């Protein structure tokens, strides 16, 4: 029995349904069974060939609720007997309801679930035998009460109803900006029951409990689900399992395997050397804390981090990964051995390793940055992800022509082409307003971001925000009108991250005055920042990009380059932004044949704190009357544009002025 499903033993299934030995062996080899929860009665999941006694399962789409399930091949010895008699089902229901009434409030629900077919697993056999043992114990007055209690606890574990699993399965929580992995800060968590099958099945794929390769099966499934490219392994994993994981990675994928001492055998090393996938594996031997520090210094970022809980400093490794952003924003941490073969359930245990695993589970559960669930497969597998939920999935359309449109350019689907993974970007004027929004957008798309601002404290505040999302970022102070400041920030970024792929030149100022009253000082100050500073940034970053043969430059212009906004008077600003557009067009045509694309974005009137100043607030209603969209632009209206212009998806665009103004320039 597993999750309330009654099973028959392999011996019984053999005796009842396979009349001869030959049929038994044939069926053992070929039977196909759909494994999962809630198989519909009469769905065809199993059918009987009465003439031969063989049982044949089906993995047809539609056999399961939702019409889309995964079939897997298992021996017929583990096939479910769908034709069991009504009295057997009734006996099962009464047994479960009677024994579980006091222990679990949802016993009747489980009893009802017994009426539906399931799939036999080692855990199911354990649960069935525990039920039999408990029945004997309850009917024998000589059995000590303590033994009965232990049988009940063991049964709860086998059913997946143990309070420890439920308590450690965290759901969404309210996240406070101030948090740490060691102090939950009183954050309240809503607890959800464990929904996964305790049988050792993950997403319908049967994992036999004694299968030594089972961890790699699970890990490969995670790699596929989150499209991982870079993986960190902390602790021991069989060499062949590492290679199996590497095989699932794309050609540019990488595994960093960290261990205190060498542990790969000769056979594993030979397999690495023989396989082309072995090139994806980097073994890091030595103190793991030092290895993690080195990876942090190298600014490595991982899609999946695997940690073996059965090691002394597992808590420290988890904390380091989270605190230093080694895990990508939408990455996953998998922790093995979190149940220590069931030892974490035991009371009054003093073994150091078990206590350490309990502590690790508690630390993760109290970390408000993540949610976790513990799967009782193998010795326990915790799956941990950051909050919030990853982006929505893409729904694909069916097409017939299998070209780049069908497969995606360079085998990358459109959203993948918008990714900026491992790209290096900077944003000037990044401490507030549009620049802050650009920094967040580029970081969320995968880039490392240098936030540049005249005021360092503003840049640091934005970097703090990015760090909370797990985005690699640094804060730099600079006056872009000074050549030495511009060169310094470029040199600093290249020294830190090796290159610059994306230059977002956004710094600008606006000093409103009537044309006849505009002083030369005001004119020069406006042009020094808006045009001179932008030119200096384009030139310094452009040299890096031209040398490497690729780069994206995005300049912030303005709707004022197209029309004369009114009623405010801003001659110097309008003229400087018109200059930005012409500079962008010139550089865009000069540099595209050397791999550097230069474009600009012209926002309309953007709703920033400046707009709500006493000087400008009276003008808002006048502006709204001139905007077909009937509202001011939000900084978030511009984020997708900067990601597009920074990505490979815009490689054929250069010298373009992308206007985002709600239609204002058309009236």
> Can you count the helices?
22
Apparent shape: elongated
Question: Which blocks of ≥5 consecutive residues have pLDDT under 50?
Answer: 1-121, 171-213, 389-395
Beta strand count: 22
Number of domains: 3
Decide which structural class fits the backbone. alpha/beta
Strand order in the sheet with the most strands: 11-10-9-12-13-15-14
Residue-averaged pLDDT: 74
Helix content: 25-40%
Please give the CATH class of the largest domain: Alpha Beta
Task: Throw out a few tags for this protein.
667 residues; Rossmann fold; 3 domains; seven-stranded mixed beta sheet; seven-stranded parallel beta sheet; 22 strands; disordered N terminus
Can you describe what's shown?
It is a single chain. The protein has 22 helices and 22 strands. It has 667 residues and is of the alpha/beta class. The strands form 6 sheets. It has a 7-stranded mixed beta sheet with strand order 11-10-9-12-13-15-14, with helices on both faces. Strand 20, helix 20 and strand 21 form a beta-alpha-beta unit. Helix 16 packs across helix 22. It is elongated. The termini are far apart.
Short description:
This protein has 22 helices and 22 strands. It has 667 residues and is an alpha/beta fold.
What is the topology?
Layout: H1 10-17, H2 21-30, E1 32-34, E2 46-48, E3 55-57, E4 71-73, H3 86-100, H4 107-113, H5 122-138, H6 145-159, H7 163-168, E5 170-173, E6 189-191, E7 201-202, E8 205-206, H8 214-226, E9 230-234, H9 239-248, E10 254-259, H10 266-274, E11 281-285, H11 288-297, E12 302-308, H12 314-323, E13 327-336, H13 352-366, E14 370-375, E15 381-386, H14 404-407, H15 414-417, E16 424-428, H16 433-444, E17 448-453, H17 456-468, E18 473-477, H18 483-497, E19 502-505, H19 520-548, E20 551-556, H20 571-591, E21 596-603, H21 620-625, H22 639-646, E22 657-660
Parallel strand pairs: 9-10, 9-12, 10-11, 12-13, 16-17, 16-19, 17-18, 19-20, 20-21, 21-22
Antiparallel strand pairs: 1-4, 2-3, 5-6, 7-8, 13-15, 14-15
Helix pairs in contact: 3-4, 5-6, 8-9, 16-22, 18-19, 19-20
